[in-house]
Amino acid sequence: MSSLDDLIRRARLLHAEGHSQSQISDELNLSMETVTYLLMKEKEGDVPKDVLIDWTSVSGRADLLDDLAALMIGQSRPPGCPLEEAQPEVSAVVGIALSSVPLATLIALQENLKLAVYFPSRHSVSDPPMGSLSENFAPVSGEACVIVDDVITSGKTLREAVEYLRGHGANPASIWVIFDKRGVREIDGVPVQALFRVSRLD
């Protein structure tokens, strides 16, 4: 996916397959504004300022995802210090559905933590849309949580997750992401640790 035409083709194919704009935004790690542009683009007009992140060469391989989980864990603490000493209160990992669940699973496995899965409101069919936790994974009430996501595009999803977790008796202790496209250091008082911070210079 190196050219704008390829990106337009991919976005339109996903749309034709029944994906909503928010799902396309998730799949391509692009802002909703950019997805709208890709779906409605005419030949003229300015391209929204966004950065495409394609990490499928890693996300499609379990062994590399496992290495990535270890990198994220390692970044959260001083060398040689177990997570339980660096952040002794942490007891659960919350993966943001869908893309971050495999990574959150590997982090929970490596650190022997509970695993929860959060579905953002953009996946909701209720009116008004609401976020929710999957009933098939660990409950979060009383847990101190690390929230795991792949890319911060606007920060809206993570802000929503923090609010939801607090409203359901959990303590969001930190947010771990692979890529931060906004240069965010904290969200609603919760520190953000990003492996990579992506900046666009205009």
How do the strands and helices of this protein lay out in sequence?
Blueprint: H1 4-16, H2 21-28, H3 32-40, H4 56-59, H5 62-75, H6 83-86, E1 90-96, H7 101-111, E2 114-119, E3 132-133, E4 144-152, H8 156-167, E5 171-180, E6 186-187, E7 190-197
Parallel strand pairs: 1-2, 1-4, 4-5, 5-7
Antiparallel strand pairs: 2-3, 6-7
Helix pairs in contact: 2-3, 5-7
Outline of the structure:
With 202 residues, the chain is of the alpha/beta class. The protein has helices at residues 4-16, 21-28, 32-40, 56-59, 62-75, 83-86, 101-111, 156-167; strands at 90-96, 114-119, 132-133, 144-152, 171-180, 186-187, 190-197. Helices cover 37% and strands 22% of the residues.
Structure description:
The protein has about 200 residues and is an alpha/beta fold. It folds into 2 domains: about 5-40; about 55-195, Rossmann fold (3-Layer(aba) Sandwich), CATH 3.40.50.2020. The chain is about 35% helix and about 20% strand. The chain has 8 helices and 7 strands, in the order H-H-H-H-H-H-E-H-E-E-E-H-E-E-E. It has helices spanning about 5-15, 20-30, 30-40, 55-60, 60-75, 85, 100-110, 155-165; strands at about 90-95, 115-120, 130-135, 145-150, 170-180, 185, 190-195. A 7-stranded mixed sheet has the order 3-2-1-4-5-7-6, sandwiched between helices. Strand 4, helix 8 (about 155-165) and strand 5 (about 170-180) form a beta-alpha-beta unit. The longest helix has 14 residues, at about 60-75. The radius of gyration is 17 Å and the shape is globular. About 35% of the residues are buried. The mean pLDDT is about 90.
